[in-house]
Write a structure and sequence with these properties.
There is one protein chain. The chain has a three-stranded parallel sheet, with no helix packed on it. Mean pLDDT is about 85; it is low at about 40-45. The protein has helices spanning about 1-25, 140-150, 155-160; strands spanning about 60, 80, 100. It has about 180 residues and is mainly α. It has a domain at about 50-165: 3 Solenoid (Pectate Lyase C-like).
Length: about 180
Amino acid sequence: MTSLISSLKRSLTRLLILVPVLIGLCLGPMSADALYPTDTSDSSVGRDLHGQNLQSTEYVKYDLSGADLSDADLTGAFFSVSSLENANLSGANFKGVIAYATRFDNANLSNTNLSGSDLLKSKFPGANIDGADFTDALLDRSQQKELCKRASGKTAESLKCSSISSGYVPASEGQNKFNPGT
C-alpha cells in the first residue's frame, strides 16, 4: 500500500511539472507589437507623424526615411537597426529612447530632446543638430567626436565637447605607470 501511495505521489509530481510546460507550448508565442519592415498591416504608420504621441513604440528594422516626426513624442521608444534618413525630427521628444544601430543620415534633429537616450552604434552623417539636447545620452566616442565637429552652443555643451580631448592622454606622452623605469 505504501509503495502504491509513493508511486502515485511521484506520478502526480511529474504531472504537475508537465502541465504548465504543455500549456505554454499550446499558447504559442505572444505578439510584441513591434513594427517590422514586412509588417504592412498597421496603416497608422505613414510618413506624416507630426506631433503624434508615439511613446514606447517599437521600430525593429523599420524604414522611416523621409518621415515627418517633428514635434512627435517618442519618449521611451525603441529603434533597432532602423532608418531615419532624411527624416524631420525637429522639436521631437526622444528622451530615453533606445536607438541601437539606427541611421540618422541627413535627418533634421534641430531642437530635438535626445537626453538620456541610448544611441550606441547609431550614425549621424549630415544630420542637422542645431539646438539638439544630448545631455546624458550614450554615444560611441567616435560619433561624439563627429557630432562635436558640427556642434555649437548648448548642443556642444550637452555633448560635452570640451572634455573630449582633455580626457585622452596618448601612451607615448606622460609617465609609464606600469613600468616606471622606461
